[in-house]
Amino acid sequence: MTVTVVVGNPKPASRTLSAAVTLAKAVRPDAEPTVFDLVDFGAGLLGWGDPAVAAAARTVADSELVVFASPTFKATYTGLLKLFLEQFEGGTGLAGVLAVPLMLGAGPAHALAPDLLLKPVLVELGATTALPGLYLSDRTFGEDGVLAAYAERWRPVAHALSTAVPHSQ
User: What would be the CATH architecture of the domain defined by 3-163?
Assistant: First the structure.
C-alpha cells in the first residue's frame, strides 16, 4: 500500500502538513506515508523539467492513496498546490489514485471548499475521489475530534477503494 501526502502550504512544516499526515495515518494505519511539502520545491514548481518535482509527481501518480492538503487562501486552495497539480496530464495523470481533498481554514465559511474547489481538479486529472473532502479548523483540528471521526467513518471505504481501483502503471 502506497500512501502519499501532498501539502500546498507556503509555510514549511505547517499545521496543514500536520493535519494531512495525521489524516493519512488515520485512514491507512497500515502504511507510512511519503510526504511532499511543496514549499520545499521552490522555483522548481514554476515550469516543467525540474528533477525533484518530476520525481514527486511520479511518486504521487504511482500511489494508491493521496491526501492533497491546502490551507484556505482567498476562498480556495493555494497557487502552490495548483502549480504542482499542473504537472499531471489531464484525464489520466492521477488515474488509479484514490485522492482525498483536505483543506484547513479559520472558520466555517469555506467548509465546502474541499468538495467544491479542490475535488473537481483532482477528478479532471483522473483521480478517484469517492470519499468526501474534509475541512478542518486550522486551530482546533488536533483536539476537536473531527479528523478522527472522519477517519473512523471512511477508513474501511478508503481501504477497499485503494486496493480495488485499477492503477495505471
Answer: 3-Layer(aba) Sandwich (3.40)
